[in-house]
Amino acid sequence: QVHLVQSGAEVKEPGASVRVSCKASGYTFSNHWMHWVRQAPGQGLDWLGMISPNGGLRSYSQNFQGRVTMTRDTSTSTVYMELSSLRSEDTAIYYCARDPGDTSGYFPDYWGQGTLVTVSS
Amino acid sequence: SYELTQPPSVSVSPGQTARITCSGDALPKKYAYWYQQKSGQAPVLAIYEDTKRPSGIPERFSGSSSGTMATLTISGAQVEDEADYYCYSTDSSDNMLWVFGGGTKLTVL
Fold it and tell me: How far, CA to CA in Å, does A50 sit from each of A107, A113, B30, B35, B101?
């Protein structure tokens, strides 16, 4: 079955960067886009962007353009999301989520367990 | 930027029908998707491409879309359906930029 295991919680100071990893198993990693979504405490879901199966295409939300970078390593079936210039408002749970890949739209179907990133001085 | 509008809350008694709406200007041309998120858990896909139900989602969950509004219907809502529900869609011609609605808290009591 599809399994997405994310890296552990992080605490960062304002202005720093954070990298969250997401290791996939249970399906053919190189056939599926991957999404990143975040959720601030007590708030709704916020789509950050997505990365293509081979990593050659990325689409980022305009809200994070210039601060977010998504990459993937096919050899380890791992996707990474790096967010820079962190501020307190970036404190959130960050989720990776697989795209099913066989439909007309791009949407998450299976989700990771989430990674809490806390930005605090 | 594109916005999807949902009511903040909906409340029903067990066994009643719950309807959660999602309004967006591009919905006449684009699919809507729905996610259920229970407290402390990751979201779960409930409906995709307006009306399709993934395996494992109970039949009481259904979706529809008409004009600029998509609707998630839970027929005979159960206490365990109490959760936050989010719609998701796009307005970009190449389907490369996506957004979530603000979410609706469904209370079943």
Answer: 9, 17, 18, 18, 18
